[in-house]
Amino acid sequence: MVISQDMLNDSCMLNNSNEDNPGSLTAVPGLSSSTHTLVAVCLGCILVLGSLYNSLVMLIFVKFDAIRTPINMMLLNISVSDLLVCIFGTPLSFAASVSGGWLIGRQGCEWYGFCNSLFGIVSLVSLSLLSYERYITVLKCAKADVSNYKTAWRYIITSWIYSLFWTLPPLFGWSRYDLESSGVTCSVMWHSDSANNVSYIVCLFLFCLVLPLLIMIFCYGHIVKVIREQMSRINLTTAQKRERRLLFMVICMVTCYLLCWMPYGLVSLVTAFGKPGIITPTVSIVPSILAKSSTVINPLIYIFMNKQFYRCFVALLKCEDDTHNIDIALSPQNSKSVHPMERGKSSNLHSYKAETANNAAPSFEQKSSVTVMVYYRECI
């Protein structure tokens, strides 16, 4: 009798073992050969694009001095963590998908689960800390201090310590890293219903997924509210466009966070607390791929939608060696002259005075509008 490849893949891919035995992987059902092929294509694209985008970000930081501001250092931390996922995590799952099963045993599974959890949580915590930093800047109604790197480094170190705090326990007995039901990725052992494992899963979900999301929603929601209140005093097309652009970026940030990480969190909870077998291997691999796709999406939203990074990126593509002009264009002192009223003052003083005389709004509001423009340009 001939046994098809699909039947072999649907059978248990690893030796039978009890989950109480920490020395071996838990046997799991595999994916069909066609599903393995599709997963390998998706992971291959994520690997190439994620490595390319995040490497470009680091190259821009190396090449252009003006981009190395405290707020951008936090963006760099996100790119570093995403690039480390592409280096230490995605290649292993890609190889497993190509070969049809996990290749490097128990220790390799623990390494993969720890690295992906560590770097993923660093990225999530950094996103929430970035939103908090912007919120504090808006709350103080002050311009971001481009010379103070202490706060940025404090946030970066906090993100790594916080992530280590939640990813090291499975290596020391509080839950453990094990093979997921797809057979090509490793993560926390979601399928165990022991009190030890359930307590860790609940804490991980609340403090590493829900809490960063709530911080982002609160901070960015407050930022949009403050900017809208300030812009309502001004009847300027430029201000309205920038307000819409800010709102669009906030919506993209929160939406992509939800799309990339919430399915993984919800499926993991269902696997942990639902009936055994309710989540099939094919269904379980989709949230895992979405979570890994954040390594591609994060640079696009947080980096290439940023005007500073975009200008440097264009200069990098044009192989421009003279970065002096770019540094001047991106300097904070230069950005203060972007307001239409200020340009009118320097180019045509007579028309500026006539416009001010016909304007019924008090001069205080004009000054406030300039302040808002400067903040948005430099901090958002």
TrEMBL record:
Keywords from the UniProt entry: Chromophore, Disulfide bond, G-protein coupled receptor, Glycoprotein, Membrane, Photoreceptor protein, Receptor, Retinal protein, Sensory transduction, Transducer, Transmembrane, Transmembrane helix
Location(s) in or outside the cell: Membrane
GO CC, alphabetical: membrane
Stored Pfam families: 7tm_1
Keyword Iron-sulfur: no
Any one GO MF annotation of this record: photoreceptor activity
GO annotation (BP), single: visual perception
Main location as per UniProt: membrane
Domain annotation G-protein coupled receptors family 1 profile: ranges: 53-302
Residues annotated as transmembrane: 38-62, 83-105, 111-132, 152-172, 198-224, 245-264, 284-304
PROSITE patterns listed in its UniProt record: G_PROTEIN_RECEP_F1_1 (PS00237), G_PROTEIN_RECEP_F1_2 (PS50262), OPSIN (PS00238)
InterPro entries, per the entry: GPCR_opsins, GPCR_Rhodpsn, GPCR_Rhodpsn_7TM, Peropsin, Retinal_BS
Membrane topology: Multi-pass membrane protein
Similarity annotation: Belongs to the G-protein coupled receptor 1 family.
Name this polypeptide is given: G-protein coupled receptors family 1 profile domain-containing protein
Organism: Leptobrachium leishanense (Leishan spiny toad)
